[in-house]
Design a protein that fits this description.
single chain; 82 residues; mainly alpha; DNA binding HTH domain-containing protein; coiled coil
Length: 82
Amino acid sequence: MTPRASTTAKDREELHQRLDAAKAERARQLEQADRLRTAAEAAFWRSVARALDGAYHGSRNDAAASLGYTRDHILKKTKQHR
C-alpha cells in the first residue's frame, strides 16, 4: 500500500470545513424538500376536499377507486388539511 502523503493540519482542517459545508447544504436542501412535500400534500388534500364537498351521492366511493386510497383515509386526510 502506498504510504500516506504527508498532510498538514491546515489541509485537514480545510477538508473538514468543506465536508461540513457540504453536510450543511444537504441538510438545508432536505429540509426545504420536506417543507415542499408537506405543502404539496396539504394542497392535494384540500383540493380533494373541495372536489368532494357537495358532490353527488357515491362520490367518495368513486374518489377512493380513482385515488387508490380507502374512503376512511380520504376522510381523515381531508379533515386534517381543512
